[in-house]
Design goal:
Blueprint (H helix, E strand, L loop, with lengths): L1 H61 L6 E4 L5 H12 L3 E6 L2 H13 L5 E5 L5 H14 L7 E4 L14 H27 L7 E4 L23
Parallel strand pairs: 1-2, 1-4, 2-3, 4-5
Amino acid sequence: MYSNCCEKLDNLIGFLLFGLGLLSLNFHQNQKASKRQLQSQILRLSESGKSDAASISAASERWSLKGKNIVVTGGTLGIGKAIGEECARLGATVLTCGRKSENLIACFQEWQKAGLKNIHGCIADVSTPEGRNAFISSIERTFPNQIIHVLVNNVGTNIRKRAIEYTDEEYHQIMQTNLNSAFFLTKQVYPYLQKNDNEGSSVINVGSVAGKCCSLFPPLSTLQHPSC
């Protein structure tokens, strides 16, 4: 009986060892398979990277702006500055303006260091008739062919208070900067846009996101007198 138990125990140990061997073999096989999958994934990512790089290069060529004349108002700060710089990188000749000479000088120094020699600028406040006339004169000096392919009306301002607290002067300041500048400058630039008969020209108006969202303040119609 003792020998019978030993034999069964030996069989059990042998079975366990065989199972462990299978598990070990399966683990190594899975490890090799995982390694092959990882190498395959790395290869795909590498090929994808090459494809993406080729796509980016092709897109850059497709979006070349060489030979285009682009006018951007308010191009010394923020969105206008970014638009002007990107257009210049893509090969366009860019003319922009700013109200403060120190900002324009600082931008020119930055653009020169970056190799963006195709950006031109002038001091002009396009919210005023005098400023728009000065900008038009700069357009005529910058573009000898008197053709503009794109006008970007970018200037804008904001006075952060409730509408019912605006003074007359503040209201007119916002309208002159955000609305009048775009309307009247587009009207003055139209003859230069019209000269691009072959391809047509574009006017881009940059507006405030506030035009597409609700106000944080209650509308005028719901405001009540404190005594009501």
